[in-house]
Design a protein that fits this description.
By secondary structure, the protein is α+β, with helices and mostly antiparallel strands. It has 8 helices and 17 strands. It is globular. The two termini are 36 Å apart. The structure holds 2,5-anhydro-1,6-di-O-phosphono-D-glucitol and manganese (II) ion (MN) (2 copies).
């Protein structure tokens, strides 16, 4: 897009973007993305009020992962659920905050779509007023006329019809893909004084992640728990122009995946939350269905690559709704290199052990 292109709003932009898709399928996707976008406007309202809306602090309950919920986790989850409840195309949804999916009381039988989401990503940053986000994924509901159950959600990431995130930062941005490239919308609230509703304005319809980068993001406090391929990659980056890479790297860690991925969408880079040995039963920190898979689709649609170390994230078939997975994504050249380190027999002794013991076997494509 250039400066001469007139501003285009979400529904109109999607209509144009989905040209050629079967009409009923395109309408279902547009209305569903509209419902998600509407919920995210409300989440952004509450997030921006912060202390004023009593949105900070603990909710006093734990979620399915045993993590203490913050008030904003619960508020965001309720707002997403409320919006999806109204949407006639959504048969069921699943959230980080609930063990089981929720079947739509009104649309569970005839709805054609399933939605999975992380209502509030980066919860540890809420009180520090650092960027947070919402991540979402839209899947087909293949067996219509029967209300979906958890098994209907167990689809590999490459079956996602759409995926995206909303970043509540200095600006509120929505970045989404319908498998036809990546679109960026900005939330325009300038009409608020006149009583006009906020609008999502298309800012970029050709997002490309640079193939080369000198920036990586990892929580380095976990270094002693990493496996050899990750130790090698990070050590070589840190060695800079005196090491084998012969160039200096910079490091970032926001602890909001949405913010990290958005930085990569903007200027390239690598994000790593690898498997580590802190809790061997947990294959990584991030969740496959509502963190890794939607981000992987976005990154791949923008020309990057997303893997668990050895396999493409989009090929992994979930066993459970809340399955965890190692996540390594970003600029293609770097991800190719990291996959090469995992494949190098001299570098991956512990990795091979993990892969041959049943407890740690990765779902393969
Ligand atoms: P959530 O707030 O939904 O639980 O997700 C937080 C995730 C992710 O956004 C971030 O990259 C990572 O957790 C941060 O983990 P550490 O605190 O271990 O660095
Ligand atoms: Mn998250
Ligand atoms: Mn979350």
């Amino acid at each position: 897009m250039d400066n001469t292109t007139p501003a285009s709003l979400l529904d109109e932009a999607l209509q144009r973007h989905l040209t050629g898709m079967e009409a009923a399928a395109a309408l279902a996707l547009r209305e569903t993305l509209g419902a998600i976008a509407q919920a995210c406007v409300r989440i952004g309202d509450v997030a921006s009020l912060g202390l004023l809306a009593e949105a900070h602090g603990m909710a006093g309950a734990s979620n399915v992962h045993g993590e203490a919920q913050q008030r904003l986790d619960v508020i965001a989850d309720d707002l997403m659920a409320g919006s999806l409840y109204e949407c006639r195309h959504v048969a069921a949804w699943a959230s980080e905050e609930h063990e089981q999916p929720h079947v739509s009381p009104a649309h569970g039988v005839q709805g054609s779509l399933l939605v999975v989401f992380d209502p509030l990503d980066g919860s540890s940053n809420i009180e520090a007023n650092i960027s947070i986000g919402t991540i979402f994924s839209v899947l087909p509901h293949r067996y219509r006329s029967v209300a979906p159950g958890a098994a209907d959600f167990m689809q590999p990431g490459h079956q996602q019809l759409a995926a995206g995130y909303v970043l509540y930062g200095p600006a509120t941005l929505m970045v989404l893909t319908c498998r036809r490239g990546v679109l960026v919308f900005a939330l325009d609230r300038r009409g608020a004084a006149q009583g006009d509703a906020p609008q999502w304005v298309l800012m970029n319809d050709e997002v490309r992640i640079p193939e080369h980068t000198r920036e990586f993001a990892i929580n380095a406090s976990n270094q002693r728990f990493w496996e050899k391929p990750i130790q090698r990659y990070v050590a070589e980056c840190v060695a800079g122009d005196t090491g084998p890479r012969m160039k200096d790297f910079n490091m970032r860690w926001v602890a909001s995946m949405v913010a990290e991925v958005h930085r990569i969408m903007t200027r390239g880079g690598v994000f790593l939350y690898p498997r580590d040995t802190r809790e061997p039963r947990k294959p990584g920190r991030l969740r496959l269905m509502y963190e890794a898979a939607p981000m992987a689709l976005l990154v791949e649609q923008a020309g990057g690559r997303a893997v668990n170390g050895t396999s493409e994230l989009l090929d992994l078939v979930p066993d459970t709704l809340h399955q965890r997975v190692p996540v390594i994504l970003g600029s293609r050249d770097e991800i190719d290199r990291i996959v090469g380190y995992h494949a190098d027999p001299s570098e991956n002794v512990s990795w091979q052990l993990f892969r041959t013991r049943s407890l740690f076997v990765q779902p393969q494509a």
